[in-house]
C-alpha cells in the first residue's frame, strides 16, 4: 500500500502522491517498523469520513481523552469512530501498538511527549494538555521533599522523567546522606507502597493521584507537596500515529490548537476536575 | 485443539486411489505411521539416547548439541540434497524439532504442534492450541518456543499463555493442562521444558516491571502436570545466600532474572543447571542497584547465574554468578555444556557456558568453583577477570548513565544470542555462532504511555565494532582443553542459527542471508551450502530413520534477536512469511 489511508482521506491524490514519494525515499532500516508476518491480513481501511481513534481503558485518563477526541472529530467535521481497546495485558510493546494502527485506528490517545522517547515510525501530535509529576505524602508536617528526613525511602514510579531527575539529584548527594529510592513498578504501586508505609513519599504522575483518589476513598488523605529541591517535571500528553500520516498529524495539531484557544479543552479538564493545564500558544 | 489423523482421512476421501498407490506409498514410507510403533521415552533413553534420535533440546542432558551420526561426512556432504520440506506457520521459528523412532515433532509459531513422519514429512497429527485472541493479536516473538520435551508417552509443551501441557505423543490428544501464571500480567514462556529425574523443569520469562519479585523455575509432575516446586530466580530479602544483594531494595523493587532458555542435567549428581538472565530494567541506575549503598550487596542475585537445583525437591544447592549487577542486557542465560576435561593437569567436571559478552567460562559443576575464561568477540565491558575467582572488573566507561550516551560492545542482542553453541567430543572443541557489533546506549524514560513502554529501558543504537571490516557473523571453534581457537569463519551476514557438530566431522549452521552451511569441524572450510527461502534461525538437528541420516533445520523471519543483529546489514532482506522446515539427506547411491 503506497498511499496511507489517513492521507488519502484528508488531502486527495496529489498531496498523497507527494508524501508517498517522500516516505519512499527514507531507507527501510531507518523506519524500523515492527515485524508483522502476513500484514495483508489487516487490509486497508475504507474512507468513511470518520476519525478513527483508539482509547485505552488501561489508561486512567482515557475518559478525558475520549471527550477530547470527540471534540477534535467535531472540529475536523468528521464522525468520531472510537475503538475502545480491550487488550488485557498489563504492559505492551511497540509491536502491539503498531498492530492497532494496522487494524483499529489512525490515532491512539494518551502518550507523553518525551523527547527521543519514540521510534521513528511513530509521530506524536502537539499536546492536548500538560500535567506534572507530583510528590505525594501522608505526613502532615512535610511541605517539600527537602522536609523529608534523609533516612526515609521515596517510592518512585520506575523510569519516569521525574524519576530520572530524582536519580540524578540523589547521585549528587553524598553516600549515606541521601534518601533511599525504591523504584516501584508503576504509579499505582508507588501509591500503594505509600499507603502501606513501605515508603514515605511517592514520586508519581499527577493524574495517577487524581485517578486513584477517584477510585478509592482510602487515598483521599494524600497530600501533594513541593518536589523542591527537584524541579517540577511537566510533560505534554498527545496522540500517537504512524509517522507517515503527516497530513493527519497536521490536521490534528490544528484542531488541538483551535480547541485550546477557544477554551474547549480547558472546559473538558474542568468538567473532570482533572489536574492538567492547556497550552494555548500556537 | 484439532488432533486428527491425516492418513485415515485421506483414505476415506480417496478410496479409489488408495489401492493403486498403496505399494508405491509403502515403498516411500508414506503409508506407515511410525507413531504407532513408537516406544515410550524412558529415563534411561534420556540418559543415553539412540544415536538416531534427538530427544531433547540439545539432544543430550550434557547440552552438547552433538550427534554421533556419521553417514553424512566430510567426503560425501557435497552430495547432500533436499529430502523433504514442510511449511510452518509464518513467524519467528527459533524451534528445535525432536525425533524419536521415526517421528519428528515440531512446535510452530503460535502454538501449533505437529508430528510428522521423519522420513517422508507426512503429517501424523496436529495440535492447535486455542490461544486467547488478545494474546495472538499482540503477536511478536513471544509466540515462538525454542524447544519442547518428550517423556514416556507424552510430549510436554510450554505454551504462549503460560501453561504447561502434555500431549499424547501418538495422537496429539491433550492429556493434561496446568496453568503456571497469568499471561495477561506479562508472564510468558519462550524457552521450553526438559525432564530430569522424572520431573519437568521449566523456566519462566517476562518478569518486567509488571511482575515485582521476578521470575522462577518450576518442577512439575509429568503424570498430572501438578507443580511440585518453584525456585525464584531473584533472591528474596530473607534468603541467606543472596537476599541482601539488591542494594537494600525491597522485593517489590526487584525485577527480572528471566529463565528463558532450557537447562542441562547431570544424572550422576542429580543436579539441574539452569541459566538465569539479566535484572530489569536493564539500566542499573533505573532499577536502583546503582549507586551502591553502603552496607548492602548489589550483585542483583540470581541474575546472570547458573543455578544448581535438585530436580526432585527444588532445593537450590549452589549458584555461580557470571556478571554482577548487569546494566547492559547482557544475559548469561544460555546452554550449559557439561564436559569432563583436565584443568591444570587435574580431571575436572566442567560446566561451560557463554554469555552475550562472548566470554566462554568454565566452572566446576560439583560446587560452582570458577575455573577459566576465554574471550571471543570484541567486548569493552569487562576489563579484567580475576584468574582465581573469575570476578570481573568492569570498564566504568561502558556503564550507561541517565543523560549520557555510552558505548558498549557487544550490543544488547549479544555477541552470541539464543542460537546455541555446541561441543564435539571428536575435536574437544566448542563451536560458537557469534556476531560482532557495539551499541551507543542511551537510557530512556519508561512511561511514554500508561501501558506502552516500548520496552524502552534504553535506546541501543547498534553500530559496527571499531575498525570493522564489515563482517558481522562468525563461527568460532575453540578447543576446550587449552582454550585455543582452532578456526574462525567470518562473514558479512549475522549468524542466526545454533550450530550442530556431528560424528561425520561436520558442523552445520545458518545465517540471516538464508545460507545453511556445513563446515569442516577441524578447519572451518565450507564443504556444502544451500540457499533456503528465509533466515536460518533455529536449532538444526540430525537424526536417522531406517538407516538413513537426515539433517533438519527450520527457517523463518520474525525473531527479535535476528532482526536486531540484521540492523547492521540492511542490504540483506528476507521475506516476511515463508517459515519452513528443510530436511536434507544424501541420495541413496552416495550413502
From TrEMBL, chain A:
InterPro entries noted in UniProt: Solute-binding_3/MltF_N
SMART domains listed in its UniProt record: PBPb (SM00062)
Entry keyword Isomerase: no
Signal peptide bounds: 1-30
Top-rank lineage group of the source organism: Bacteria
Membrane-crossing residue ranges in chain numbering: none
Keyword Phosphoprotein: no
Entry keywords, A to Z: Signal
Residues covered by the Solute-binding protein family 3/N-terminal domain: 50-276
Protein's recorded name: Transporter substrate-binding domain-containing protein
Species the sequence originates in: Propylenella binzhouense
TrEMBL record, chain B:
InterPro entries linked: PQQ_b-propeller_rpt, PQQ_rpt_dom, Quinoprotein_ADH-like_sf
Single annotated GO MF: oxidoreductase activity
Protein name: Pyrrolo-quinoline quinone
UniProt keyword list: Oxidoreductase, Signal
Coiled-coil annotated residue ranges, if any: none
Xref: Gene3D superfamilies: Quinoprotein alcohol dehydrogenase-like superfamily
Entries under PANTHER family matching the protein: QUINOPROTEIN ALCOHOL DEHYDROGENASE (CYTOCHROME C), QUINOPROTEIN ETHANOL DEHYDROGENASE
Annotated Pyrrolo-quinoline quinone repeat domain residues: 54-383, 479-551
Signal peptide: 1-26
Keyword ATP-binding: no
Organism: Propylenella binzhouense
Chain residue ranges for the region called Disordered: 25-44
Required cofactor(s): pyrroloquinoline quinone
The UniProt record lists the keyword Chaperone: no
Pfam families the record matches: PQQ (PF01011)
Family: Belongs to the bacterial PQQ dehydrogenase family.
Entry superkingdom: Bacteria
